[in-house]
Write a structure and sequence with these properties.
Blueprint lengths: L1 H31 L2 E7 L10 H13 L4 E6 L10 H7 L4 E4 L23 H10 L2 H10 L3 E8 L6 E3 L13 E3 L2 H9 L3 E3 L6 H6 L5 E2 L4 H7 L7 E4 L8 E7 H5 L3 H36 L3 E4 L2 H19 L3 H23 L1 H9 L2
Parallel strand pairs: 1-2, 1-3, 6-7, 6-8, 9-11
Antiparallel strand pairs: 3-10, 4-10, 5-8, 5-9
Helix pairs in contact: 2-10, 4-5, 5-12, 6-11, 8-10, 11-12, 12-13
This protein binds calcium ion.
Calcium ion binds next to loops.
Length: 363
């Protein structure tokens, strides 16, 4: 009996040993497997700030994975045009993309919620909502039918209201105003009696110079000074009511992501998180320097939008967000989630961030 038991035990142990070495072999071959991905973007190659985030992402992933996941970044038009990034990644022509969700409202209107909505969350609040308030889960649910997994991939912080060649003293001055302002902000301007137009970044300077448009919004001092808008516009208005904390996105083809071993998936997640924060840090530093240069070196006139105008634009925005929420059940759930988060964040930030900014200014 003992002999039989001993034989059985030996067989069992040998069996275990075999399966152990088998799983070690699988792990070893997995960790040696390398992947080469294409990342397409909606930005010109190496564009300051916005276009550097995907480059940083690729560099970080290569370093963390010791070269097991190599990602090649393509500027807009190099592999696919800017506005075909979503489809290219959805269909697997490229494994990844970098852009902004509000470019894809033609696919699903609710995509607007995940970049920025007028009078919505600022950058800090967007990050809180996405990562700890259920926002990212809703975003992933929305993109699931397109075979995509989204990640937050950068944030510029509060933008500027834009460059104007017409003074804005009341809502009357918005009437007939020809302004380059895309997305929901543009719809608000149109509803307020203005004319919103969409013009590519590279053509904005000439459009403003020749009077094709009266006003434009781009980003904030760091990006705007590089395009020279101060040379062709009289006033630089604030605050950026239309884009208070725009989140950029990294999107990954779902099948491509599933093909990665767990550790590479964790590296992708961690690198996205790092790049998302890094862009905000960069804008926080560079906007300050650029604003000083615009005002002190170039004599730019800063103007605050009048309270009456802000108040009216806010009313129109609230109305439009309600219409957007009515688009679908999921749109309604996203709208309710972000609205509840904003209500609480506004109350707490009134006695924290906002109160502190006031306190810091007091002499
Ligand atoms: Ca903008």
């Amino acid at each position: 009996m003992r002999i039989i038991l001993a034989i059985l035990m030996t067989m069992f142990l040998v069996g275990c040993g075999d399966s152990d070495s088998q799983s070690n072999t699988i792990q070893a071959s997995q960790s040696e497997q390398t992947f080469e991905w294409k990342l397409v973007t909606t930005w010109p190659k190496n564009y300051p700030g916005l276009g550097l985030a995907p480059e940083n992402f690729a560099t970080k992933v290569a370093a963390m994975s010791a070269g097991r996941l190599k990602i090649k970044v393509y500027g807009a038009g190099q592999l696919v045009p800017a506005f075909e990034v979503f489809d290219a990644v959805s269909q697997g022509t490229a494994e990844m993309g970098h852009g902004a969700s509000y470019y894809w409202t033609g696919k699903s209107k609710a995509a607007a919620f995940f970049t920025s909505v007028p009078f919505g969350l600022n950058a800090q609040e967007m990050n809180g909502w996405l990562h700890y308030g259920g926002g990212l889960e809703l975003w992933r649910e929305l993109y699931d039918e397109f075979n995509l997994v989204p990640y937050a991939g950068g944030n510029t912080g509060v933008q500027m209201a834009g460059w104007f060649n017409r003074e804005i003293n009341s809502m009357e001055d918005i009437k007939g105003l020809k302004m380059r302002i895309p997305g929901m902000g543009g719809d608000v301007i149109t509803r307020a009696g203005g004319i919103s137009v969409t013009i590519a970044g590279g053509e904005l300077y000439t459009a403003m110079q020749t009077g094709v448009i009266d006003a434009l919004e781009w980003v904030s001092p760091y990006n705007d000074i590089a395009l020279g808008f101060h040379q062709v516009a009289k006033y630089y208005y604030y605050p950026g009511w239309h884009e208070p904390g725009p989140t950029l996105e990294l999107i990954i083809n779902k099948d491509a992501l599933a093909s990665l071993p767990d550790d590479l998936q964790a590296i992708v997640e961690t690198a996205a998180r790092a790049v998302n924060q890094d862009m905000l840090d960069e804008y926080t530093a560079r906007n300050n320097e650029a604003l000083i240069s615009l005002v002190e070196t170039h004599g730019v006139q800063l103007r605050k939008l009048p309270d009456e105008v802000i108040s009216e634009l806010r009313s129109i925005s609230v109305e439009m967000l309600e219409e957007l929420a009515d688009d679908s059940d999921l749109s309604r759930r996203i709208a309710e989630s972000v609205k509840a988060f904003q209500r609480q964040a506004t109350a707490y930030h009134a006695i924290s961030e906002e109160a502190y900014y006031q306190a810091r200014k007091q002499k």
